[in-house]
Amino acid sequence: IRHDLKNHMFAIQALIEGNETEKALEHISLIMNSIGAKKDYAVSGNSIIDSTINFKLQGAEHNGIKTTVDLNIPEDLKISSFDLTVILGNLLDNAIEATLKVKEGRFIDVKMKYDKGRLLIRIDNSYRGEIKEEKGRLLTTKENKNNHGIGITSVKKVIQKYDGQILLDYSGQVFSVSILLFLES
Which parts of 60-143 are beta strand (E)? Predict the structure, then answer.
């Protein structure tokens, strides 16, 4: 499905542009069924957040990673779906990748809270305790450096748009990412 994802996205876009919403939903349903994304880990009512978390954590649990989700957010947030997908997609991909390298005690905890115009996101995960850094910047451990190692940079660009902050803590065997975004009420 990953190999064909671009083609599926073009097909879905064409169906939506042609006002064939039912066919677009059918296509999406077929994709989701083929990848086995069925369990609901997140049920906040915010479809972008819920679908991203549900899709990513489905794969994590399939690989033996214990997951927990704690969401206290409204259905409608004043942040673009594109920006939410960049943040959650990259952070969850990184968390899953790091956790898969751990032999025992694999976990990922996702917490999101909205209060008075502030969106707080925290993702904790187990990891081996090994980090590659250069001049305060985390480096990818993957061989193909040209196509990897840009996730946190992408997340930081989105955070800047919302005058937000990010805090990374990787002391011990737990990697934590905390994000604060200031959203319009």
Answer: 66-72, 107-115, 118-126, 133-134, 137-138
pLDDT tens digits for range 53-106: 998 998 898 889 999 999 999 999 999 999 999 999 999 999 999 999 999 999
Q: Does residue 98 contact residue 129 with C-beta atoms inside 8 Å?
A: no
Distances (CA, A) of 152 to 27, 159, 183: 31, 10, 20
Contacts of 92 (CB under 8 A, 6+ apart): 52, 53, 56, 57, 60, 108, 110, 123
Residue 114: φ, ψ to 5° = -115, 130
The pairing of strands 174-182 and 165-169 is antiparallel
Nearest to 150 by CA among 98, 96, 86: 86
Cα-flanking dihedrals φ and ψ of residue 61, to 5°?
Answer: -65, -35
CA distance 17 to 21: 9
What is the residue type of 16?
I
Average pLDDT across each block of 10 residues of the chain; the chain has 185 residues. List them in order: 80 94 88 70 90 90 93 93 95 95 95 96 91 60 53 94 94 93 87
Length of the chain: 185
